[in-house]
Amino acid sequence: MRVNVYGSELSAAVAAAALSSVGHQVDWYPHPEVPWQHLEHAEWLLREPGLKSQIDAGCRSGLLRLTDTPTREDVEIHWLALAPDQRESAEAYVADIPAAQSSPLVIVNNSTFPVGHTERLEALLGHTGQAAVALPDMLEEGRAWETFTRPARWLLGSEDRQATAQVRELLRAFNRRQDVFQLMPRRAAELAKLAIIGMLATRISYMNELAGLADSLDVDVEHVRLGMGADSRIGFEYLYPGCGFGGPSFSRDLMRLADVQHASGRESLLLEHVLDINEQKKETLFRKFWHHFHGQLFERRVAIWGAAFKPGTTRIDQAPVLTLIDALLAQGVNVSIHDPEALPALRELYEQHPRVRFCDDDFYAACEEADALMLVTEWKCYWNPNWRRLSELMTTPLILDGRNIYDPDYVASRGLIYRGIGRRADPPNA
Protein backbone atom coordinates (compact mmCIF):
# COMPACT_ATOMS: atom_id res chain seq x y z
CA MET A 1 0.00 0.00 0.00
CA ARG A 2 0.91 3.64 -0.40
CA VAL A 3 1.05 5.15 3.11
CA ASN A 4 1.61 8.64 4.46
CA VAL A 5 2.82 8.89 8.07
CA TYR A 6 2.44 12.33 9.65
CA GLY A 7 4.08 13.24 12.95
CA SER A 8 7.31 13.44 14.94
CA GLU A 9 6.29 11.23 17.87
CA LEU A 10 7.90 7.88 18.68
CA SER A 11 4.76 6.23 17.31
CA ALA A 12 5.27 7.98 13.95
CA ALA A 13 8.90 6.87 13.69
CA VAL A 14 8.08 3.26 14.54
CA ALA A 15 5.09 3.10 12.20
CA ALA A 16 7.07 4.55 9.28
CA ALA A 17 9.96 2.13 9.78
CA ALA A 18 7.83 -0.95 10.50
CA LEU A 19 5.35 -0.48 7.65
CA SER A 20 8.12 0.07 5.12
CA SER A 21 9.97 -3.00 6.45
CA VAL A 22 7.14 -5.27 5.27
CA GLY A 23 6.81 -3.82 1.78
CA HIS A 24 4.52 -0.81 2.06
CA GLN A 25 5.61 2.35 0.23
CA VAL A 26 5.82 4.91 3.03
CA ASP A 27 6.27 8.66 2.91
CA TRP A 28 7.03 10.02 6.37
CA TYR A 29 6.23 13.68 6.91
CA PRO A 30 7.50 14.80 10.36
CA HIS A 31 5.61 17.63 11.97
CA PRO A 32 7.13 21.02 10.94
CA GLU A 33 7.81 21.86 14.61
CA VAL A 34 10.26 18.92 14.77
CA PRO A 35 11.61 18.31 11.23
CA TRP A 36 13.84 15.37 10.41
CA GLN A 37 16.99 17.51 10.70
CA HIS A 38 16.26 17.80 14.44
CA LEU A 39 14.52 14.47 14.91
CA GLU A 40 17.40 12.34 13.63
CA HIS A 41 19.61 13.60 16.49
CA ALA A 42 17.02 13.18 19.24
CA GLU A 43 18.33 11.07 22.12
CA TRP A 44 15.10 9.11 22.45
CA LEU A 45 15.25 8.09 18.79
CA LEU A 46 18.91 7.11 18.88
CA ARG A 47 18.51 5.12 22.12
CA GLU A 48 15.32 3.26 21.19
CA PRO A 49 16.63 -0.28 20.48
CA GLY A 50 16.92 -0.98 16.76
CA LEU A 51 14.75 1.90 15.61
CA LYS A 52 17.30 4.15 13.89
CA SER A 53 18.81 1.20 12.02
CA GLN A 54 15.35 0.20 10.79
CA ILE A 55 14.69 3.75 9.57
CA ASP A 56 18.04 3.77 7.76
CA ALA A 57 17.29 0.36 6.21
CA GLY A 58 13.91 1.59 4.98
CA CYS A 59 15.47 4.65 3.39
CA ARG A 60 18.15 2.55 1.66
CA SER A 61 15.51 0.19 0.27
CA GLY A 62 13.55 3.09 -1.19
CA LEU A 63 10.37 1.96 0.59
CA LEU A 64 10.68 4.73 3.18
CA ARG A 65 11.00 8.31 2.05
CA LEU A 66 11.39 11.27 4.38
CA THR A 67 9.67 14.39 3.10
CA ASP A 68 9.10 17.95 4.26
CA THR A 69 5.81 18.25 2.34
CA PRO A 70 2.89 15.80 2.56
CA THR A 71 2.18 13.54 -0.39
CA ARG A 72 -1.46 13.82 -1.45
CA GLU A 73 -2.07 11.77 -4.57
CA ASP A 74 -2.74 8.01 -4.77
CA VAL A 75 -2.37 7.49 -1.03
CA GLU A 76 -4.42 4.66 0.47
CA ILE A 77 -3.60 5.23 4.16
CA HIS A 78 -2.87 8.45 6.04
CA TRP A 79 -1.40 7.49 9.43
CA LEU A 80 -1.57 10.36 11.97
CA ALA A 81 0.78 10.03 14.97
CA LEU A 82 0.80 13.47 16.53
CA ALA A 83 1.18 14.95 20.01
CA PRO A 84 -2.03 15.72 21.94
CA ASP A 85 -1.53 19.47 21.47
CA GLN A 86 -1.29 19.11 17.67
CA ARG A 87 -4.98 18.54 16.99
CA GLU A 88 -5.25 21.66 14.84
CA SER A 89 -2.39 20.40 12.68
CA ALA A 90 -4.20 17.09 12.24
CA GLU A 91 -7.41 18.84 11.23
CA ALA A 92 -5.64 21.12 8.75
CA TYR A 93 -3.82 18.13 7.25
CA VAL A 94 -7.03 16.10 6.84
CA ALA A 95 -9.03 19.06 5.52
CA ASP A 96 -6.63 19.35 2.56
CA ILE A 97 -7.09 15.72 1.51
CA PRO A 98 -10.44 15.85 -0.33
CA ALA A 99 -9.19 18.42 -2.85
CA ALA A 100 -6.30 16.18 -3.86
CA GLN A 101 -7.91 12.76 -3.87
CA SER A 102 -11.27 11.25 -4.64
CA SER A 103 -10.29 7.56 -4.56
CA PRO A 104 -10.97 5.50 -1.38
CA LEU A 105 -8.62 6.05 1.54
CA VAL A 106 -8.47 5.54 5.29
CA ILE A 107 -7.28 7.93 7.99
CA VAL A 108 -5.67 6.02 10.85
CA ASN A 109 -5.75 8.14 13.99
CA ASN A 110 -2.82 6.82 16.05
CA SER A 111 -2.70 10.00 18.17
CA THR A 112 -4.03 10.54 21.68
CA PHE A 113 -6.68 13.15 20.96
CA PRO A 114 -9.92 13.74 22.90
CA VAL A 115 -12.56 11.02 22.72
CA GLY A 116 -14.63 11.59 19.59
CA HIS A 117 -11.90 13.31 17.60
CA THR A 118 -11.59 10.49 15.05
CA GLU A 119 -15.19 11.15 14.08
CA ARG A 120 -14.36 14.83 13.66
CA LEU A 121 -11.47 13.95 11.33
CA GLU A 122 -13.77 11.79 9.19
CA ALA A 123 -16.28 14.66 8.95
CA LEU A 124 -13.56 16.80 7.38
CA LEU A 125 -13.16 14.28 4.53
CA GLY A 126 -16.72 14.48 3.27
CA HIS A 127 -16.34 11.85 0.50
CA THR A 128 -18.01 8.46 0.36
CA GLY A 129 -15.34 5.78 0.60
CA GLN A 130 -13.07 7.90 2.77
CA ALA A 131 -13.16 6.90 6.43
CA ALA A 132 -11.27 7.49 9.67
CA VAL A 133 -10.50 4.79 12.22
CA ALA A 134 -9.04 5.01 15.72
CA LEU A 135 -5.97 2.88 16.40
CA PRO A 136 -4.63 4.16 19.74
CA ASP A 137 -0.88 4.17 20.32
CA MET A 138 -0.03 1.19 22.55
CA LEU A 139 3.77 1.34 22.25
CA GLU A 140 6.05 0.80 25.25
CA GLU A 141 9.02 3.15 25.25
CA GLY A 142 12.28 1.23 25.40
CA ARG A 143 10.79 -1.66 23.40
CA ALA A 144 8.71 0.23 20.86
CA TRP A 145 9.82 -1.80 17.82
CA GLU A 146 8.94 -5.05 19.53
CA THR A 147 5.52 -3.87 20.71
CA PHE A 148 4.62 -2.68 17.19
CA THR A 149 5.89 -5.69 15.24
CA ARG A 150 4.84 -8.34 17.79
CA PRO A 151 1.75 -6.73 19.33
CA ALA A 152 -0.22 -8.22 22.19
CA ARG A 153 -3.30 -6.34 20.93
CA TRP A 154 -4.54 -3.55 18.69
CA LEU A 155 -7.57 -1.55 19.81
CA LEU A 156 -9.21 -0.89 16.45
CA GLY A 157 -12.06 1.60 16.54
CA SER A 158 -13.97 1.36 13.28
CA GLU A 159 -17.59 1.30 12.14
CA ASP A 160 -16.76 0.99 8.44
CA ARG A 161 -16.35 -2.54 7.06
CA GLN A 162 -14.11 -1.50 4.18
CA ALA A 163 -11.87 0.62 6.40
CA THR A 164 -11.58 -2.25 8.89
CA ALA A 165 -10.48 -4.61 6.12
CA GLN A 166 -7.97 -2.05 4.84
CA VAL A 167 -6.34 -1.62 8.25
CA ARG A 168 -6.22 -5.37 8.80
CA GLU A 169 -4.42 -5.75 5.49
CA LEU A 170 -2.06 -2.89 6.32
CA LEU A 171 -0.97 -4.64 9.53
CA ARG A 172 -1.33 -8.25 8.36
CA ALA A 173 2.42 -8.92 8.64
CA PHE A 174 2.23 -8.14 12.38
CA ASN A 175 -0.90 -10.22 13.00
CA ARG A 176 0.12 -13.74 12.05
CA ARG A 177 0.47 -15.62 15.36
CA GLN A 178 -3.07 -14.85 16.47
CA ASP A 179 -5.71 -12.24 15.75
CA VAL A 180 -4.70 -9.37 18.00
CA PHE A 181 -7.35 -6.93 16.79
CA GLN A 182 -10.05 -5.95 19.24
CA LEU A 183 -12.70 -4.35 17.04
CA MET A 184 -14.99 -1.78 18.67
CA PRO A 185 -16.57 1.61 17.95
CA ARG A 186 -14.16 4.52 17.55
CA ARG A 187 -15.07 6.32 20.77
CA ALA A 188 -14.78 3.07 22.70
CA ALA A 189 -11.24 2.48 21.39
CA GLU A 190 -10.19 6.03 22.27
CA LEU A 191 -11.60 5.73 25.78
CA ALA A 192 -10.27 2.18 26.26
CA LYS A 193 -6.70 3.39 25.71
CA LEU A 194 -7.08 6.04 28.40
CA ALA A 195 -8.91 3.63 30.70
CA ILE A 196 -6.04 1.14 30.51
CA ILE A 197 -3.56 3.79 31.58
CA GLY A 198 -5.87 4.87 34.38
CA MET A 199 -6.19 1.30 35.67
CA LEU A 200 -2.44 0.69 35.62
CA ALA A 201 -1.80 3.95 37.45
CA THR A 202 -4.46 3.05 40.00
CA ARG A 203 -2.83 -0.32 40.72
CA ILE A 204 0.57 1.29 41.19
CA SER A 205 -0.77 4.03 43.46
CA TYR A 206 -2.81 1.53 45.49
CA MET A 207 0.30 -0.55 46.10
CA ASN A 208 2.16 2.61 47.12
CA GLU A 209 -0.59 3.38 49.63
CA LEU A 210 -0.35 -0.16 50.99
CA ALA A 211 3.43 0.19 51.25
CA GLY A 212 2.98 3.25 53.45
CA LEU A 213 0.48 1.38 55.62
CA ALA A 214 2.84 -1.60 55.84
CA ASP A 215 5.62 0.71 57.06
CA SER A 216 3.43 2.07 59.84
CA LEU A 217 2.33 -1.44 60.91
CA ASP A 218 5.85 -2.93 60.72
CA VAL A 219 4.76 -5.32 57.96
CA ASP A 220 6.89 -6.30 54.97
CA VAL A 221 4.81 -5.25 51.96
CA GLU A 222 6.40 -8.00 49.87
CA HIS A 223 4.33 -10.60 51.72
CA VAL A 224 1.22 -8.53 51.03
CA ARG A 225 2.12 -8.21 47.33
CA LEU A 226 2.64 -11.95 46.95
CA GLY A 227 -0.63 -12.70 48.72
CA MET A 228 -2.53 -10.29 46.47
CA GLY A 229 -0.89 -11.40 43.24
CA ALA A 230 -1.62 -15.07 43.93
CA ASP A 231 -5.33 -14.26 43.75
CA SER A 232 -6.32 -14.99 40.14
CA ARG A 233 -8.72 -12.04 40.20
CA ILE A 234 -5.79 -9.67 40.76
CA GLY A 235 -2.54 -11.11 39.35
CA PHE A 236 0.96 -9.66 39.65
CA GLU A 237 1.13 -7.13 36.80
CA TYR A 238 1.79 -3.53 37.92
CA LEU A 239 1.60 -4.65 41.56
CA TYR A 240 4.99 -3.30 42.61
CA PRO A 241 5.26 -0.34 44.99
CA GLY A 242 7.90 2.26 44.17
CA CYS A 243 8.94 5.88 44.34
CA GLY A 244 6.46 7.10 41.73
CA PHE A 245 5.93 6.81 37.98
CA GLY A 246 6.58 9.28 35.18
CA GLY A 247 7.16 9.34 31.45
CA PRO A 248 5.78 11.54 28.66
CA SER A 249 3.07 9.20 27.38
CA PHE A 250 1.90 7.67 30.66
CA SER A 251 1.61 11.00 32.45
CA ARG A 252 -0.06 12.93 29.65
CA ASP A 253 -2.52 10.08 28.96
CA LEU A 254 -3.55 10.21 32.61
CA MET A 255 -4.07 13.95 32.31
CA ARG A 256 -6.00 13.37 29.09
CA LEU A 257 -8.32 10.97 30.92
CA ALA A 258 -8.78 13.56 33.67
CA ASP A 259 -9.61 16.17 31.01
CA VAL A 260 -12.16 13.84 29.38
CA GLN A 261 -13.88 13.31 32.71
CA HIS A 262 -13.86 17.03 33.50
CA ALA A 263 -15.28 17.92 30.08
CA SER A 264 -18.10 15.39 30.55
CA GLY A 265 -19.02 16.94 33.90
CA ARG A 266 -18.10 13.74 35.74
CA GLU A 267 -15.21 14.59 38.03
CA SER A 268 -13.21 11.58 39.22
CA LEU A 269 -12.17 11.70 42.87
CA LEU A 270 -10.42 8.35 42.35
CA LEU A 271 -8.21 9.58 39.51
CA GLU A 272 -7.39 12.79 41.36
CA HIS A 273 -6.32 10.71 44.35
CA VAL A 274 -4.20 8.46 42.14
CA LEU A 275 -2.37 11.47 40.74
CA ASP A 276 -1.92 12.98 44.22
CA ILE A 277 -0.50 9.73 45.59
CA ASN A 278 1.98 9.54 42.74
CA GLU A 279 3.24 13.08 43.30
CA GLN A 280 3.64 12.37 47.02
CA LYS A 281 5.53 9.14 46.34
CA LYS A 282 8.11 10.99 44.28
CA GLU A 283 9.30 12.46 47.59
CA THR A 284 9.24 9.22 49.56
CA LEU A 285 13.01 8.59 49.38
CA PHE A 286 13.64 12.16 50.49
CA ARG A 287 11.33 11.68 53.47
CA LYS A 288 13.12 8.46 54.47
CA PHE A 289 16.44 10.29 54.20
CA TRP A 290 15.08 13.17 56.30
CA HIS A 291 13.76 10.79 58.96
CA HIS A 292 17.02 8.84 59.22
CA PHE A 293 19.06 12.00 59.86
CA HIS A 294 16.33 13.75 61.90
CA GLY A 295 16.19 16.62 59.43
CA GLN A 296 19.91 17.44 59.70
CA LEU A 297 20.62 17.37 55.95
CA PHE A 298 22.68 20.47 55.15
CA GLU A 299 25.97 19.61 53.38
CA ARG A 300 25.26 15.88 53.40
CA ARG A 301 25.89 13.94 50.18
CA VAL A 302 23.48 11.64 48.35
CA ALA A 303 24.24 9.24 45.52
CA ILE A 304 21.42 8.63 43.04
CA TRP A 305 21.38 5.60 40.76
CA GLY A 306 18.99 6.05 37.86
CA ALA A 307 17.32 9.15 36.46
CA ALA A 308 15.25 7.95 33.47
CA PHE A 309 11.55 7.46 34.17
CA LYS A 310 12.07 3.74 33.47
CA PRO A 311 14.91 1.46 32.32
CA GLY A 312 15.61 1.39 28.60
CA THR A 313 14.94 5.04 27.86
CA THR A 314 16.74 8.38 27.90
CA ARG A 315 13.65 10.33 28.93
CA ILE A 316 13.18 12.11 32.24
CA ASP A 317 9.77 13.68 31.54
CA GLN A 318 7.83 13.82 34.86
CA ALA A 319 10.40 11.36 36.26
CA PRO A 320 10.49 10.94 40.07
CA VAL A 321 14.17 11.93 40.08
CA LEU A 322 13.28 15.56 39.25
CA THR A 323 11.12 15.99 42.34
CA LEU A 324 13.72 14.17 44.43
CA ILE A 325 16.66 16.29 43.27
CA ASP A 326 14.78 19.54 43.83
CA ALA A 327 13.84 18.48 47.37
CA LEU A 328 17.44 17.55 48.19
CA LEU A 329 18.92 20.73 46.76
CA ALA A 330 16.42 22.83 48.69
CA GLN A 331 17.91 21.37 51.89
CA GLY A 332 21.52 22.05 50.88
CA VAL A 333 22.31 18.42 50.04
CA ASN A 334 25.08 17.59 47.54
CA VAL A 335 23.91 15.17 44.86
CA SER A 336 25.98 12.76 42.72
CA ILE A 337 24.04 11.07 39.91
CA HIS A 338 24.63 8.15 37.58
CA ASP A 339 22.38 6.85 34.81
CA PRO A 340 23.43 4.74 31.81
CA GLU A 341 21.43 6.79 29.29
CA ALA A 342 19.59 9.80 30.74
CA LEU A 343 22.39 12.08 31.98
CA PRO A 344 22.39 14.30 28.85
CA ALA A 345 18.74 15.21 29.48
CA LEU A 346 19.43 15.78 33.18
CA ARG A 347 22.44 17.97 32.39
CA GLU A 348 20.21 20.40 30.53
CA LEU A 349 18.49 21.13 33.85
CA TYR A 350 21.27 20.91 36.43
CA GLU A 351 24.59 21.33 34.62
CA GLN A 352 25.30 24.67 36.28
CA HIS A 353 24.16 23.78 39.78
CA PRO A 354 27.15 23.72 42.15
CA ARG A 355 25.72 20.92 44.29
CA VAL A 356 25.08 18.49 41.43
CA ARG A 357 27.80 16.15 40.14
CA PHE A 358 27.35 13.82 37.16
CA CYS A 359 29.11 10.45 37.10
CA ASP A 360 29.14 9.26 33.50
CA ASP A 361 31.03 5.97 33.55
CA ASP A 362 31.44 4.51 37.04
CA PHE A 363 28.26 4.32 39.12
CA TYR A 364 30.32 3.51 42.20
CA ALA A 365 32.01 6.91 41.88
CA ALA A 366 28.69 8.55 42.74
CA CYS A 367 28.79 6.81 46.13
CA GLU A 368 32.11 8.23 47.34
CA GLU A 369 31.59 9.76 50.81
CA ALA A 370 27.82 9.54 50.36
CA ASP A 371 25.47 9.56 53.34
CA ALA A 372 22.88 7.59 51.38
CA LEU A 373 22.43 5.76 48.09
CA MET A 374 19.02 6.24 46.48
CA LEU A 375 18.01 3.68 43.85
CA VAL A 376 15.48 5.47 41.62
CA THR A 377 15.51 3.62 38.28
CA GLU A 378 16.07 -0.13 38.26
CA TRP A 379 18.59 -0.46 35.42
CA LYS A 380 20.01 -4.00 35.32
CA CYS A 381 23.53 -2.75 36.06
CA TYR A 382 22.37 -1.79 39.57
CA TRP A 383 20.81 -5.10 40.58
CA ASN A 384 23.88 -6.83 42.00
CA PRO A 385 26.32 -4.25 43.38
CA ASN A 386 29.49 -4.97 45.31
CA TRP A 387 28.14 -4.39 48.81
CA ARG A 388 31.55 -4.43 50.46
CA ARG A 389 32.79 -1.78 48.07
CA LEU A 390 29.72 0.37 48.74
CA SER A 391 30.21 0.05 52.48
CA GLU A 392 33.82 1.20 52.14
CA LEU A 393 32.97 4.11 49.83
CA MET A 394 30.04 5.53 51.76
CA THR A 395 30.23 7.69 54.87
CA THR A 396 26.88 6.26 56.01
CA PRO A 397 25.94 2.93 54.39
CA LEU A 398 22.25 3.81 54.01
CA ILE A 399 20.49 2.17 51.05
CA LEU A 400 17.17 3.73 50.06
CA ASP A 401 15.68 1.33 47.53
CA GLY A 402 12.98 3.12 45.53
CA ARG A 403 12.11 0.03 43.46
CA ASN A 404 12.41 -2.77 46.04
CA ILE A 405 14.92 -4.67 43.91
CA TYR A 406 17.23 -5.67 46.77
CA ASP A 407 16.79 -8.32 49.46
CA PRO A 408 16.54 -6.41 52.74
CA ASP A 409 17.94 -9.21 54.89
CA TYR A 410 20.88 -9.82 52.58
CA VAL A 411 21.78 -6.12 52.40
CA ALA A 412 21.60 -5.89 56.21
CA SER A 413 23.76 -9.00 56.55
CA ARG A 414 26.46 -7.20 54.56
CA GLY A 415 26.57 -4.46 57.18
CA LEU A 416 24.45 -1.81 55.40
CA ILE A 417 21.21 -0.12 56.45
CA TYR A 418 18.29 -0.91 54.16
CA ARG A 419 15.06 1.04 53.65
CA GLY A 420 12.70 0.21 50.79
CA ILE A 421 9.13 1.07 49.87
CA GLY A 422 7.21 -0.76 52.58
CA ARG A 423 10.29 -2.91 53.24
CA ARG A 424 13.06 -2.56 55.78
CA ALA A 425 15.80 -4.49 57.53
CA ASP A 426 18.29 -3.50 60.17
CA PRO A 427 21.97 -4.49 60.17
CA PRO A 428 22.99 -7.28 62.55
CA ASN A 429 23.15 -6.29 66.22
CA ALA A 430 21.48 -2.94 65.48
Automatic annotation (TrEMBL):
Keywords: NAD, Oxidoreductase. It comes from the Bacteria. It holds the Pfam family UDPG_MGDP_dh. InterPro entries: 6-PGluconate_DH-like_C_sf (IPR008927), NAD(P)-bd_dom_sf (IPR036291), UDP-Glc/GDP-Man (IPR017476), UDP-Glc/GDP-Man_DH_C (IPR014027), UDP-Glc/GDP-Man_DH_C_sf (IPR036220), UDP-Glc/GDP-Man_DH_dimer (IPR014026), UDPglc_DH_bac (IPR028357). NAD(+) binds at T112, E141. Substrate binds at K193, Y238, L239, Y240, P241, G242, G246, K310. Residues 303-408 form the UDP-glucose/GDP-mannose dehydrogenase C-terminal domain. One of its GO terms (biological process) is polysaccharide biosynthetic process. SMART domains: UDPG_MGDP_dh_C (SM00984). SUPFAM superfamilies: 6-phosphogluconate dehydrogenase C-terminal domain-like (SSF48179), NAD(P)-binding Rossmann-fold domains (SSF51735), UDP-glucose/GDP-mannose dehydrogenase C-terminal domain (SSF52413). GO terms for molecular function: NAD binding; UDP-glucose 6-dehydrogenase activity. Its EC number is 1.1.1.22. It catalyses: UDP-alpha-D-glucose + 2 NAD(+) + H2O = UDP-alpha-D-glucuronate + 2 NADH + 3 H(+). Belongs to the UDP-glucose/GDP-mannose dehydrogenase family. This is UDP-glucose 6-dehydrogenase.
